Amino acid sequence: MLGALIGDIAGSPYEWKNQKSKTFPLLSPHCHMTDDSVMTAAVASAVLMGQLEDLDRFQQNVIGELRRLGRQFPHQGYGPRFEKWIWSENPQPYYSLGNGSAMRVSPVAWAAESLPQCLALAKASAEVTHNHPDGIAGACVVAGAVYLARTGAEKAAIAEHVTRYYPLNFTLDEIRQEYRFDVSCAGSVPQAMEAFLEAADFEDAIRGAVSIGGDSDTIACMTGAVAAAFYGIPRDLRDRVMPFLEGEVRTIYDRFVQVY
User: Fold this and answer.
1) Residue of 97, 139, 156, 183 with fewest CB within 10 Å of its CB?
2) Overall average pLDDT of the 185-212 stretch
3) What sign for the dihedral angle of Cα 137, 78, 245, 47?
4) What is the percent of the chain where pLDDT is above 70?
């Protein structure tokens, strides 16, 4: 979970001021939590409620926590349709193919006891808003990659998982100059996974994700989730990011790491 939060926070200054290299301050005074961190915490909170074998109950918990934390942390950069969903009296999925489903999903991978369960939980967490096949696919890619990384899979196996959903037919160097802002799963999840696959360590993964530009905080959030499961996070970086975790996001994180 913390890898996703670090990626979001590190990428936050560059979402609208894209950085096209790996050379930038990783955590600066300009960094802050965005909707990615808040919604990741919301899914983590739903996971902590248990009953994960009951997908209908899990979905209801996800809906409740996404809406509760979304209302508690307004003005975090939510998409207009998702913001409307947060405040709706009768929230319904809206067939989104955006990357919101993928940026928030990583906590399910730490609770799942098998890859099939992980993918089922990812699908369930996505469907409450992002019930487009691509919205579901993006969540399954990220969650599955985190699960495989935390259970000891090599990068080749993680890449094989990703390519069941999206091609990985590029390198970061090949796309860096031309890549532009794209909030779809198809246009950002493969890029996030490539940043992880090319990385030498956790920090390098975050720097690679930010370096291509685009939806920087979300891409780095997805990359960070996988990189943390694969490499771990340096202790000094853990300590440096804690002051950026606000309110209940910090509380949920503390609870989550005690359990998982």
Assistant:
1) 156
2) 98
3) negative
4) 100
User: What span, in angstroms and rounded, lies between the C-alpha atoms of 13 and 15?
Assistant: 6
Write out the two tokens for 23: 């050379």
Cα dihedral sign for 170, 174, 178, 179? positive
How many Å apart are CA 84 and CA 98, to the nearest integer? Answer: 15
Torsion angle of the four alpha carbons 256, 87, 103, 30, in this order, in degrees rounded to the nearest 10: -90
Cα–Cα distance measured from residue 45 to residue 67, given in angstroms and rounded to the nearest whole number: 12
Given a contact cutoff of 8 angstroms between Cβ atoms, the answer to whether 45 and 107 are in contact is no
DSSP state letters, 112-167: -SSHHHHHHHHHHHHHTT--SHHHHHHHHHHHHHHHHHHTT--HHHHHHHHHTTS-
Query: Which amino acid would we find at residue 164?
Result: R
**Segment 90-110, tens digit of pLDDT:** 999 999 999 999 999 999 999
> To the nearest 5 percent, what fractions of the chain are helix, strand and coil?
65, 0, 35
Annotate 201-212 with DSSP letters as a single string: SHHHHHHHHHHT
34 within 8 A of 8, measured Cβ to Cβ: yes
